[in-house]
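Hey, quick one: can you model this chain's 3D structure?
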Amino acid sequence: MLDSLRTLIDEIRGAEPQREFAAGDYRVAAAALLVNMAHADGHVAPQERARLKRLVEERFELDPAAARRLISRAAESEREAVDLFQFTNVLKRALDEDGRRGVIELLWDMAYADGEADEIEENIIWRIAELLGVSTRDRVLLKQKAGREGPEPMPSVSPWNDEGGGI
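Sure thing. Here's the predicted structure for all 167 residues.
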């Protein structure tokens, strides 16, 4: 009830309503790194779009509509970013060591979405792991795990058909 009152007062004063996924939200930072990974080779393949959507829905326990909003917000943040530090800084403050390793695991999963992780993707993950304080050993073990599991099957329908949400 108090939140509703604050929202009403903010609307009357002309203040911008609070965004569902604020810039300092670790989910935005993690999803922005996933978007960056999807764009790493200059082309976002359909299986990369599907993997991104699935990872965001599953990892952050979001319904498809909320996942689209998060991906959209993350893509906006990624486009405006000067470097990766702004995202890794948020993640390093918000997550413990296991959480930071989980981000690297997500990135490897994304890198292997099209069947293989290329040199650019490997380099990006190496830089992010260094910024997050994830050890080389853990980074390599997570890469091997993602490589063994391989890509998911190609979806029969584009995940972006319903209400857009492009990256």
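One thing worth noting: Confidence is low (pLDDT under 50) at residues 1-10, 154-164.
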